[in-house]
Design brief:
The chain has a single domain, classed as Lipocalin (Beta Barrel), CATH 2.40.128. Helices cover 11% and strands 54% of the residues. The chain contains 2 helices and 12 strands. The longest helix is centred in the first third of the chain and has 7 residues. The model has no long low-confidence stretch (mean pLDDT 90). Belongs to the calycin superfamily. Fatty-acid binding protein (FABP) family. This is Fatty acid-binding protein, liver. Pfam families: Lipocalin_7.
């Protein structure tokens, strides 16, 4: 199954609480909470390139499944992590105390992230 495509944010749950938990300043949370971000994914075998555009903020991350890579988080911090593929439709990674699962079902991609508490879900 190919993750390649462009996906627009449709809904989110617990986003503000999650952003507070990971240390994003309140001003940025309020500014960004209603922005409908767009995620573009290009997959070439085990290599992925994610481009997330939320208003004027753009985050680009590239990684190869199973290999250590440096990714930029929503707070702008760079972290080293390994992304794993579970089954043929889930990308899973853990960094610091955050776990992130990105799941593809048909033409809908869902990301669930948690940092102990609370859990944030975006589709």
């Amino acid at each position: 199954m190919s993750f390649s495509g462009k996906y627009q944010l449709q809904s989110q749950e617990n986003f503000e609480s999650f952003m507070k938990a990971i240390g994003l300043p309140e001003e940025l949370i309020q500014k960004g909470k209603d922005i409908k971000s767009v995620t573009e994914i290009v997959q070439n075998g085990k290599h992925f390139k994610f481009t997330i555009t939320a208003g004027s903020k753009v985050i680009q991350n590239e990684f190869t499944v199973g290999e250590e890579s440096e990714l930029e988080t929503m707070t702008g911090e760079k972290v080293k992590t390994v992304v794993q593929l579970e089954g043929n439709n889930k990308l899973v990674t853990t960094f610091k105390n955050i776990k992130s699962v990105t799941e593809l079902n048909g033409d809908i991609i869902t990301n669930v992230s948690w940092c102990s508490e609370p859990v944030a879900s975006r589709a």
